[in-house]
Design brief:
Number of strands: 6
Largest sheet: 6 strands, antiparallel
Radius of gyration: 14 Å
Order of helices and strands: EEEEEEH
Shape: globular
Low-confidence stretches: none
Mean pLDDT: 92
Strand content: 35-45%
Length: about 120
């Protein structure tokens, strides 16, 4: 089951598909310990297809990073070399770049989920 967002808003429409940005924070958006901000679109059956995600889950390479699901399968999809300081920066980053990510996702993967 997909988790709910603390907030959600439309990023814009590309090729007739509405892309949205949703964010969740733990324990809350007023006291952020961990977060994820996600650019996605929904299929007709309600399935969310993630295009890009910025979160602060820890990895060997660092913490805040971008999961670039719009890239071609087989390419590095994690980017730790980003100037994002927290959840609000992550939201702004996706809002500013959504159109490029959406276009690239659709070119590489079509309107379905990315095949690993």
């Amino acid at each position: 089951m997909q988790s709910e967002f603390d907030y959600l808003y439309p990023a814009g429409t590309h090729r007739g598909i509405e892309f949205q940005i949703g964010a969740r924070a733990d324990p809350s958006i007023n006291n952020i310990h961990s977060f994820a901000v996600i650019l996605f679109f929904a299929q007709a059956d309600g399935t969310r297809v993630e295009v890009a995600k910025v979160d602060n889950s820890e990895h060997e390479e660092g913490t805040i990073h971008v999961d670039r699901y719009y890239r071609e399968v087989g390419t590095d999809d994690k980017d730790f070399d980003v100037d994002i300081g927290g959840m609000w920066d992550a939201d702004e980053y996706l809002e500013q770049n959504w159109r490029r990510f959406a276009k690239t996702y659709l070119e590489n993967h079509g309107e379905g989920p990315r095949r690993e």
